[in-house]
């Protein structure tokens, strides 16, 4: 019999929605446990462009989502200022964009309570000099840039502070269903492959694009259409404000400044399986073409990396539309007791990063009703202090590295110091270099881990070598290194030309030729490495 | 309009990696007025400082690791592809080039050991084993087939070598190995210590004496000691010999990621040979081809800020490398061009494998040449006085086959031989 624990609310999923729900539930006094199969923001929250929506993007087609975004935009800026750069945003119409879109756009902004102020094209170009001279109209809106890694860390720390627990690298094996009621879940702890049983009064399914798979474990059908969105990070902060095209939402019409880079997004393609999707070459070409329309010199800058996330688009009508962009961005809270006759399970579907707090509030409201212990939500009034001051803010990392005595640097692209790596290794106990990347930005700079990955592998092996374990299996360290470089390769291959190809040649020569890394013993065969095939 | 001619040469080599420097040195040593001109330094500073001729038996499948080849000569007997650069150049050119490079090394006081029928199996900084044909004195004692535990120095404060990990990997492969912490005095404090910093310190006899004094008490029972490759830049032979003697152990170096100290020594050896023979080296300008029409070059144009200079030449040898060094450029997805004369590039439809560690088809892209290494023009007709050598050539996966420097040597030699100077 696997060990059994019990909790009041079990949250499945460590993305923004699940973290928000666990935080909200813990603040309301419920005994709360969150489980996540990977790291924080392992899924879509960590593969997002970073735009904290003002809501203006959705005012014409999806007014409810727009109004939700507008409220939550203001709330989150107050709630977690350390994770948000309040850049403001522009909606700009080029001379080719439909002028008739402006009137419904402005009417929608008014209806949703979004302040949209027109400025002259000349003023817009004075503020953003790289923008196209073909601007016809420009409006300022309260868009902002949000670092989803920082936000997730803030909320995760707040869950713990409120008495809840967050278990990473715990995989849901099955839901326990007894007499038409979900009573808990069986989990696998991935660090040692042991099984655990958690009994829960209520299970909150916050698994985003995977919500259909989880609901199916209780025999419930939830039609979630994974909507693949591809993005490219350009190696330059091309704009200081979020820039949107003023036209019906389409591919490649958002440009978001994030730290030292700018991210252009996105495409939107319905896919069958949230774990298997490929970035197609045409998506990259298309995004770059759209980038050139906004910023004529766009292609002169280096595309650092491409990646894709899967939106958890909820098909309320169960199959009425196959066009991903036409599905609503709004969320829905599904009570499977009312819907499917299965008690003890609530699914949170749809929605966006910007509205994660609101989704959590509504989900825990429903949980309170179902548990007959309704208590008011207090997350909108909270203030999340950073538990660590901004790994992700370059000037802070610069300041941290320019002290006496000077800490040794592991990654000079992103100014990651050895004490930071060692501290992160202590906390996470993780053998996944990709988790260090999310924590520290290790390997995210121009050299894409060419020089730092081998150092990180060395530090990992040293950290694993203790008096209790004087000979840790080296194959695990090697796998961590090889899988990390394969993970980097996934994002690089779609943008592999020019300087990137040159960089790859340098990095491959280091790892494959000079170090012979591909011939080291590994814990897992190479065909199990994460891979995204391009067609 | 062509700028006035700055100077006239018998041979102009474009590129200052191993292939370019060697082509220049071979030409200069045969009496040709020779210029080597390059945008920047080449691959020597990025590589291990050894001469790989053929390292790996072909893998059974894309997913199985490459097997080590103990005998490059025998492995080359099995290489039947007539378009492989090593076969285009031919075995006599390879053998002669190895001999002449060893002579250059001896003249510079930096012996390169080895023969064409033997590979050393040397440990890498991660503890894998890499095969190589020629290696300096300071590396050969690391051959994993030799007796004696491989003790690897873990230098605190030096971030580019992790002895624990390397020793663990060597042990996992069945070789006796362990890490031993050994401190180096007077590391830089205001910035990271690079291998080049440590090498310059170890060039000093007094520093070596101090290190030996500190380390000797820790070396009881140690017969061979591996260090990251830091044993001197200007006086590597003296640094290795003297420290070995003072410590009473067989010292061997493990090559590191760039900047490569042994690679810089190799650069110095060949550059010295070039300049002693009267050749000239210019590093810095952007180099473009100078030809009125395809087929024959007048020389090259050298672009620096504010100036373009013309250099006339009887023969131009392109040693500009592949994608890593700028000889090949990919301006957009799926596109490729040769950087100097815009020569046609032999490519394929597929560029990349899905896994990072698999052989990538683009590695074989490059120039197709005739038997004297003249590149073929768009019409399939060879250029008359232009040749291509080294990584610019099509038909080899230099990382995967372990033949990077072998191609540099053999094609540089063959190109100069074909000039009949």
Task: Provide an overview of this structure.
The complex is a heterodimer of chains A (about 525) and B (about 425). Chain A is of the alpha+beta class and about 525 residues long. Helices cover about 35% and strands about 25% of the residues of chain A. Chain A has three domains: about 5-45 and about 150-225 and about 325-380, FAD/NAD(P)-binding domain (3-Layer(bba) Sandwich), CATH 3.50.50.60; about 80-145 and about 225-310, D-Amino Acid Oxidase, Chain A, domain 2 (2-Layer Sandwich), CATH 3.30.9; about 395-530, no CATH class. Chain A is built from 15 helices and 22 strands. In chain A, the strands form four sheets. In chain A, strands 5, 6, 7, 13, 14, 15, 16, 17 and 18 form a nine-stranded mixed sheet that branches. In chain A, strands 1, 2, 9, 10, 11, 12, 19 and 20 form an eight-stranded mixed sheet that branches. Chain A has a three-stranded antiparallel sheet with strand order 3-8-4. In chain A, a hairpin with an 8-residue loop joins β14 (about 240-245) and β15. Chain B is α/β, with parallel strands linked by helices. In chain B, about 30% of the residues lie in helices and about 20% in strands. Chain B is built from twelve helices and 19 strands. Chain B has helices at about 20-30, 70-75, 85-90, 90-105, 135-140, 165-170, 195-200, 205-215, 235-245, 260-275, 400, 405-420; strands spanning about 5-15, 35-40, 55, 65-70, 110-115, 120-125, 130, 135, 150-155, 175-180, 225-230, 250-255, 280-285, 285-290, 300-305, 305-320, 330, 335-340, 385-390. At the A-B interface, α7, α13, α14 and α15 of A face α6 and α11 of B.
Largest interface: A-B, 59 and 58 residues
CATH architecture field of the largest domain in chain A: 3-Layer(bba) Sandwich
Largest sheet report of chain B:
7 strands, mixed
- What fraction of the residues of chain B are assigned to beta strands by DSSP? 15-25%
How much helix, percentage-wise, in residues of chain B? Answer: 25-40%
CATH homologous superfamily assignment of the largest domain in chain B = FAD/NAD(P)-binding domain
Average pLDDT of chain B works out at: 95
User: Which structural class do the helices and strands of chain B define?
Assistant: alpha/beta
Using the alpha-carbon principal axes, give the shape of chain A.
globular
Beta-strand portion of chain A reads 15-25%
Total helical segments of chain A: 15
Oligomeric assembly = heterodimer
Shape of chain B: globular
Name the CATH class of the largest domain in chain B: Alpha Beta
> Percent helix among the residues of chain A?
25-40%
Low-confidence stretches of chain A: 531-535
- The beta-strand count of chain A equals 22
